[in-house]
User: Fold this.
Amino acid sequence: MTESIETIKTEALAAVAAADTPEALETVRLKYISRKGLIPGLMQHLKSLPPEEKKAYGQQVNDLKNTFQQALDDRRAAAEQAATGPAQSFDVTLPGQWRGLGSKHPITQLTERAIEIFQTLGFTVADGPDIETVFNNFDALNHPPGHPARDVKDTFYLDDPNTLLRTHTSPVQVRYMLEHPPPVRIIAPGRCYRRDTPDATHSANFHQIEGLYVAKKVSMADLKGDLSHFAREAMGPDTRVRFRPHFFPFTEPSVEVDFSCHVCHGQGCRVCKQSGWIEIAGAGMVDPNVFTAVGYDPDQVTGYAFGMGIERIAMILFGITDIRHLYENDDRYLRQFA
Ligand code: DAH
Assistant:
């Protein structure tokens, strides 16, 4: 009996040593230690042995099984190592892999900078959805029925004709005032949509920053003071601000706001088309009809509002000649503004 244990041991270990693929090793394993394999088979003889030999025999078969299993494991580890190559072998002199670092889009940079500046003046950021009600976008902002901005040629209406893609960030004023009693001091950046045919200066979607300050006795002087502070912080300490009379349905009086040209400082150059000034925003004193629409008492509060186009400012500041460059996501282009 001991003899056949020794024979099987010799053969089994030789078979392990000769197997050089995982498949060959598996075949050897099945032959020797699967449930019906040769090594468990040796245990069959236990029954026929005299009692005093049983213990020693069992031990020998167990030892064989362990020895075989160990040899099998060692051989398998060696085979795996051969397949994956030696561990710890990499060339420390190879150059590292370069992964390009992203940077903020110019629209994001400008938006964040504007928020930062207005926050120092006590403004908080307010938000509204891109899909708006006609009431918030037009009615409450004092656009009479038939106002040209409401035309389907200019505005994207949705299936529900009471909803549209907001044409400006001004509806955030309405939302905010409907939900908060005065005083109000908010800035609202966001995306807007108009049915414009894309060209170098038009895009069907673009970004604005809205501002609204409502309290007792807010005046045009507050508007000019705050925008002047913004101009100096954003464009440089010698920037001046000028108002030109204009019309918006939701402000009275209304103005267009120009900043002195940051390139020529007002002398006249190519960037400002020789005028010395660059148009930056629309603004004005909140129309009493808007206050009434949101449930404020126009005899108790006054306010100013403004809205500026971020793309326009980005184009002027960064010398971008075509608004479409901002949306093509060509990272060779955008990287310049990192
Ligand atoms: N909503 C205007 C536009 O899209 C911009 C604007 C002008 C916003 C005057 C205002 C404002 O808040 O007072 O052209």
